[in-house]
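Lab notebook: predicted structure, single chain.

Context: the supervisor wants predicted structures on file for every construct in the current expression panel, including those that have not yet been purified. This is the next one on the list. No modifications to the sequence; it matches the entry in the shared construct table.
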Amino acid sequence: MTWKPNVTVAAVIEHERRFLLVKEKIAGKHVYNQPAGHLEEGETLVEAVTREVLEETACHFEPHALVAIQLWRHPHNGITFLRFGFCGQITHHDPTRPLDPDIVATGWFERHEIDTMRNQLRSPLVWESIVAYESGHRIPLDILQTFFEPGSHPKL
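Prediction complete. Output recorded below exactly as produced.
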């Protein structure tokens, strides 16, 4: 059997000392997460995080840097995730755009509020991404390189 981690992206979005989180329903339970999701075939990591933020928050996101690259194994189901955490800014919001069906709500939370709800976070990666962001971790986006064969990128 071949082992492959799930490649995911997430956005740490801060504005006026508050962080944007989504409340989502996963396996019948409400949890909080950064706007995040899986890398889809043919996408770059930047395209994936931009798409996920739009789908989960109806906000257009401009990534500026990576704040964390995280490898985590879920303790209950053993699924492994390779997560690329980006920071950046919202450029505008489209209030007419529907959110992904699993998204219950979006909201802006101060760090101390997120700290008090750590047992409601989807994974420890949510908190650790905020810590990395606040610690000033910034990896330039030009470190990311994508090599697709000409004509193989479905979005071209």
